[in-house]
Amino acid sequence: MLKCNEVVERADELVDGTPLSFRQRWALRLHLMMCHHCRRYVRQLRLLVQSLRRNPEPASEEEVDQVMRQIEQSEST
Amino acid sequence: MNSELETPEFLERLQNGDRQAFSLLVETYHRRLVSTARGLLRSGDAEDAVQNAWIKAHKALPDFEGRSRLQTWLTRIVINEAKMRLRGGGREVTLDVDDEGRDALADRFKDGGGWAQPPGHWGVSSPDDLLTSDELADCMRKTLNDLPEKQRLVLELRDMQGEELDDICNSLEVSASNVRVLLHRARTRLFALVDHFQETGEC
């Protein structure tokens, strides 16, 4: 039987969708069915991880120009 | 991610020396790469390293076989560049796991492994709800900055930029188990922070 601290150790794999063996998945599911603290932990961890996802901010025109200029310079030397 | 940039057609344009395509690549990935470099270098150095990495990437493009995504390939070039700079500055670069910043939730369990101090109810139902408070957002930023650099780098690549774990292991030349430990520590630290904030309203 998994303990709560072991579930917390494995929660990252659940959130990341890492493939787990049948046995591991079953053990986690069984624990989560019975333990509302761990259910809450996994649910809130997932929200937290999703909230960190950033859409890439495009670089400014000046930044792009500077990179392109340096590339041109490196080509001419 | 801009999916147009990860198509074979776009790669062909790049490899044919299409400058407009390369500019678009820079526009899309530059800021991300700077964030990645900042995981290892000081701010000014990070920008220099990325600049140099662009020059290298531009040179190496004809040899790029498209086996990984462009974003992943660029990230690897930036990390190599950053490591080279650290070595040049006499700093040894190991991305192995050490004792720095252990599991922030470890002391919330009883000896038997059950919760002694279980997580509180945050009362949020979507990721966007979580960061509506400016105070919490500030607090998160500060905590992110204070994370041990290896943890922050892995969190940046995985959770902020959405890189695959396998690609992170390859780019950083770190074992999968080390990457998992670093990621786990970074996430539990943030979890403990949000949990504390939700309970007390303080950072």
Structural description of this entry:
Helix content of chain A is 77%, strand content 0%. Chain A is mostly helical. Chain A has one domain. Chain B is mainly α and 203 residues long. The longest helix of chain B has 25 residues, at 176-200. Chain B folds into 2 domains: 3-88, RNA polymerase sigma factor, region 2, helix turn helix motif (Rna Polymerase Sigma Factor, Chain: A); 106-200, Winged helix-like DNA-binding domain superfamily/Winged helix DNA-binding domain (Arc Repressor Mutant, subunit A, Orthogonal Bundle), CATH 1.10.10. Chain B is built from 9 helices and no strands. In chain B, helix 2 (19-38) packs across helix 4, helix 4 (70-88) runs parallel beside helix 8 and helix 6 runs antiparallel to helix 9. The mean pLDDT of chain B is 90. In chain B, 63% of the residues lie in helices and 0% in strands. The A-B interface holds A 3-6, 8-9, 12-13, 16, 18, 37-38, 40-41, 44-45, 47-54, 56-59, 63-64, 66-68, 70-71, 74 and B 1-2, 19, 22-23, 26-32, 51, 54-55, 58-59, 105-106, 109, 112-115, 118-119, 121-122, 124, 126-131, 155, 158-162, 165, 180, 183-184, 187-188, 190-191, 194-195.
Number of strands of chain B: 0
Rounded average pLDDT of chain A: 94
Low-confidence stretches of chain A: none
Query: What is the CATH superfamily label of the largest domain in chain B?
Result: Winged helix-like DNA-binding domain superfamily/Winged helix DNA-binding domain
Oligomer: heterodimer
Tell me the distance between the termini of chain B: 32 Å
Under the CATH scheme, the architecture of the largest domain in chain B is: Orthogonal Bundle
| Helical/strand content category of chain A | mainly alpha
Rounded Rg of chain A: 22 Å
CATH class of the largest domain in chain B: Mainly Alpha
Measure the end-to-end span of chain A.
66 Å
Share of residues in helices of chain A = over 70%
pLDDT < 50 runs, ≥5 residues of chain B: none
